[in-house]
Each structure stands twice: as C-alpha cells, then as structure tokens.
Amino acid sequence: MNAIEAVFARHSYRGEYRPEPVPREHLRTILEAGLAAPSGCNKQTTSLIAVDDPALLARLKAEIDPPVAQTAPAMICVLTRRIAAYRDRCFATQDYSAAIENMLLAVAALGYASCWYEGHITDVDRIGDRLARILGAPEEYELVCVLPVGVPAEEARPPKKRPFDERAWFNGFMRRDG
To answer: Do residues 15 and 148 touch, judged by C-beta distance below 8 A?
Structure first.
C-alpha cells in the first residue's frame, strides 16, 4: 500500500480485535512512523510507548472508563512534554497530532486497525495520568492518547464523509472556479 492508499484506507475502528499478537517489528515500524512526524521548531515533544505485554495491557485497560479497545493485543501510548518552541509558543499538540496521524497511516498500511482515543483520556478524571504512572513516565510527560493496534475481528467500515465541494475549494472560501 502506498501513502495515498493508506490515507484513504485509514479510518477509526471501534470494534473487537482478533487475539493474534502484533509482531514487535510492526510495532517498531509504527513507532518510527510517529517519530518521523514534523515537530514545531524540531523540539520533538512527542514520546511513545508500545505495550504488548498482556498483563500490562490488562492493567492499562482496567483504568480506561468507559472501556475501549478491550480486545486489542497492543496499544501505543502517546506522551508529550510542554516545551516552548517559538516566542514562548508551545506546539506540543500539533507535534503529537502529526505523530498520531503518521502512526494511524502506518497501522493501516500494515493491515491493522486503530482509533485515536484522546477525549476521555485527558478529560477531568485524568485517566492519562494514571496510565502514565503505571508506565513509569516522569511527571513532566503527559499521556494524551492511546491507540489500540490489532487485526479487526469484523469488517471496518469507513464513515460517510461530506462531499468535497462542501469542504474544500480553490482560490477562496466556497469558490467554484476550479
């Protein structure tokens, strides 16, 4: 699968996963894809932890409420550090977002499925903080996202997207000249 095919093949998967493990070399490729993402002023604020140990996965999944990806055989935890990059601006959110998208494309290219879980990981109950403690992450790191990784147990169906002409234009907002 080439990069363009991966872009169009990738979509969020929230179903069950098959029990077969994800090979370490595939997890490494996915992590490397994340680390290859651009980062503001090259501050490289994003760090990643792949988890494939079943006992550790069970501990992490037990902390996630409401439960998600309970059958995933692997999980990637995305951590960030808030570092000023340019004129006291921090680009950590953009950095980890680029890393996550690269990883999601790599996941699709390797034939796996995943979903970007961030909302309730970073919400007021601070599930990410508990996950970070379990993983031994230093306090200056914030765990902001988990990506389950595995072979989908059911057919993954992409969501319906609004038509191109409703969301993209040439040479100006809502212009139809191209």
So the answer is: no
Q: Could you tell me if residue 70 is left (phi over 0), alpha (psi between -120 and 50 degrees) or otherwise beta? A: alpha
Query: Comparing C-alpha atoms, which of 26, 24, 19, 25 is closest to residue 111?
Result: 26
For residue 178, pLDDT over 70 is answered with: no
Task: Tell me how far CA of residue 11 lies from CA of 31, 86, 130, 132, 161, in angstroms.
Answer: 18, 33, 27, 26, 11
**Residue 175 CB burial class (10 angstroms; 0-12, 13-18, ≥19):** exposed
Please, what are the domains in the chain? 16-153 (3.40.109.10)
Question: pLDDT digit string (tens) for 81-114?
Answer: 998 888 888 988 999 999 999 999 999 999 999 9
Q: What angle do CA 117, 119, 121 make, to 5 degrees?
A: 70
* Phi, psi angles (nearest 5°) of residue 145: -160, 150
Beta strands in the chain (DSSP E): 46-51, 74-80, 84-86, 89-90, 142-149
